[in-house]
Amino acid sequence: MPRRPKPPFARALRTARACVCPNCAQGPLFAGWLKLLPACPVCRLTYYPESGYYVGAMYLNFIASALVSAVLYAAALPIHRLSQAPITTQIIVWVSIGILVCLSLMRFAYSFWISVDFWLTPWEPGVEHPLG
Ligand SMILES: [Zn+2]
What is the Å distance from ligand 1's center to 46 Cα? Predict the structure, then answer.
C-alpha cells in the first residue's frame, strides 16, 4: 500500500491550534472542552489509533503546565500581599492555579500530539494507525 504524502508542518500546527481533525481540518477533536471524540465526524479519521495513544500528550501537558505555572509564580513574586500570606493559603492558591492551567492546556496538548503524529505518520480515515 502506498504511503500517504506528508502534509505541510504549518498545516499540522494550524490544526493543532484550532483543535480540529489533522486530516480534513474541519471536524472537531472535542465534544465540549475536554471530551475527545472517538473519530472525526467529517472524514471518520480515528482519534484513538492505539491503546495508550495519549500518554505522551499527558506528559506534554504536565511539562507545559509546570512551565506556565512556574512563570506565573515568578511573575506573582513581587505582589507583596500574596507572598506575605500564610503558607497554607499560598499552597491552596498555587495548587488551584496549577490545576486550572493544566485543564486549560489539556485540549491543546492532545490536539498538538495527534496533529504532529499525523504529520509524522499519516493514516487513512477508517483504518488503524500504520504503526499501531
Ligand atoms: Zn476529519
Answer: 9
